[in-house]
Amino acid sequence: MASGVKANSECKKVFEKLMRPETSHVKDEGEEEIGRFVIMKLNENNSEIIVEYKSKPEETFDDFRALMDAAAKAGEGRYAFYDVLKSDQDEKAHKGAKGDMAMIVWCSDEECGIKQKMLYSSSKSALKKACTGFKKEFQVNDLADLTLEELQSKFKK
Fold it and tell me: d(Cα 58, Cα 92) in Å, to the nearest integer?
């Protein structure tokens, strides 16, 4: 089911930068460094997917989880791409290391309404079309399931 929503061109640009190990953690002229994740959302009139947040290199999964929780508490869904390191790699110690790229579709069962869930579910194909090359897609609806350990275990399957 397609919603007619398009992914903003910045989504693809930021995703590609996150995917490239040689440039994702390096400042380009006039650009910010990007850490392990980017968060995207539907714009105010639900017509376009836009980049909401580009992580800084020092930010960790806990920072990511807090941002996703804040979106849920506002009754909103989010899309995210997260560079998941292996379970034996510490995020801070392995700055710049590349793991497996995950696409996360986040709509809290408790906080998001049916309309919000349907919009995010039906619009993800536009983002997937613009941002190719990630390894796995995860639909997450409960904060208890949004853990680094859970993502790492899903890559082992």
Answer: 7
Closest CA to 98 of 118, 87, 84, 112: 84
Q: Are 132 and 14 in contact (CB under 8 A)?
A: no
Q: By the 8 A CB rule, do 41 and 79 touch?
A: yes
Q: In the structure encoding, which two tokens stand for residue 22, read together?
A: 């040689």
| pLDDT, tens only, 37-79 | 999 999 999 999 999 999 998 899 999 999 999 999 999 999 9
- Residue 3 β-bridge partners: none
Q: Name the CATH topology of 6-156.
A: Severin (3.40.20)
Residue 36: name the closest of 90, 73, 78, 106 by CA: 90
* DSSP type of residue 143: G
108 closest CA partner among 74, 135, 133: 74
* Domains in the chain: boundaries: 6-156
